[in-house]
From TrEMBL:
Keyword Transcription regulation: yes
Natural source organism: Nonomuraea thailandensis
Protein name, entry field: DNA-binding transcriptional LysR family regulator
Source organism, top-level taxon: Bacteria
GO molecular function: DNA binding; DNA-binding transcription factor activity
Similarity comment: Belongs to the LysR transcriptional regulatory family.
Gene3D superfamilies associated with the record: 3.40.190.290, Winged helix-like DNA-binding domain superfamily/Winged helix DNA-binding domain
One Pfam assignment: LysR_substrate
Location of the HTH lysR-type domain: 1-58
Keyword match Transcription: yes
A GO cellular-component term linked to this record: protein-DNA complex
Length: 299
């Protein structure tokens, strides 16, 4: 008894036709008939009543059908299990991250994955968030860490890592430094230093300004928070950063919450819904690295 015989048997039973079954399994009708006859000889019973126009199951055929389906499913599961193990032995994983990323848990996750699966080749690509998300969608990247304004980017699964408000950061002596918060309109009276278009922070800032009909003057743009802070310290514009970014430079800059931008900036891992075994393993490493207090089974 061979798996292909069981496959043909199930196909004929479900199609109730040798002709349609042959089309389904992509061989000739005579080939299907011959294999079914061989299976019947091995089992010692006819599986189909061939006297009617449609191929209908005999009592023996009905008894065999569910077992044949189960055998095919088990064979498929064996193939999937071996494929997953093989993929984690000698596969490839291509990961994207936002330019200037200093989120060290991502590096910890990569190190943990590499230690557990040294045969998987890792590639790391930097780009802006929009292009990274699109690369994940089209399959160029397997997984990416991006900045985003929504927890559910179109067509992608998401694990939110950080969720923070926008902050304006200014050096001591700047007119805005006297307050503890600032409105978007007040902020837009000054030159802005921000991340470039295509990044999550810039998209959130631009959307908030557009919603109020404001046209900010972004005098300088830089991809790295260090560069934005350095420009702001030198008086070249008000830095627009996330809360944790601004806090990193509090020895040189005063952070002011932008009161009327309630929507948060998000940092998230994104991947396609039909992920590979390597992606699932990388996500496990990512959850442990980003959320160690939750334990390995959390999230």
């Amino acid at each position: 008894m061979e798996l292909r015989q069981l496959e043909y048997f199930v196909a004929v039973a479900e199609e109730q036709s040798f002709t349609r079954a042959a089309e389904r399994v992509h061989i000739s009708q005579s080939g299907v008939s011959a294999q079914i006859r061989r299976l019947e000889r091995e089992l010692g019973a006819e599986l189909f009543d061939r006297s009617a126009r449609a191929a209908t199951l005999t009592v023996a055929g009905k008894a065999a059908l569910e077992h044949a389906r189960a055998a095919l499913a088990a064979a498929g599961a064996v193939g999937q299990a071996v494929g997953e193990v093989t993929g984690l032995i000698r596969g490839r994983l291509t990961i994207g991250m936002v330019i200037g990323c200093t989120v060290t848990p991502l590096f910890d996750a990569l190190a943990a994955f590499h230690a557990a699966h040294p045969g998987v080749e890792l590639s790391l690509i930097e780009d802006n968030s929009d292009r990274l998300a699109e690369a994940v969608r089209d399959g160029t990247l397997d997984l990416a860490l991006i900045g985003t304004t929504t927890a559910t980017p179109d067509g992608l699964e998401t694990l939110t890592i950080i969720e923070e408000r926008l902050v304006a950061a200014v050096p001591p002596g700047h007119p805005l430094a006297r307050g503890r918060a600032v409105t978007l309109r007040e902020l837009c009276e000054h030159a802005i230093v921000c991340m470039p278009p295509g990044t999550g922070l810039r998209t959130l800032f631009d959307q908030a300004c557009a919603a109020q009909g404001l046209r900010p003057v972004v005098s300088l743009a830089a991809s790295a928070a260090d560069a934005i802070a350095g420009l702001a310290v030198r008086g070249l514009g008000v830095a627009v950063l996330s809360e944790s970014m601004a806090a990193h430079y509090r020895d040189r800059l005063t952070g002011l919450l932008i009161d009327d931008v309630a929507a948060p900036a998000l940092l998230a891992l994104v991947w396609r819904p039909s992920d590979s075994p390597a992606v699932r393993e990388m996500l496990r490493c990512g959850r442990r690295a980003f959320f160690p207090a939750d334990g390995p089974a959390a999230r």
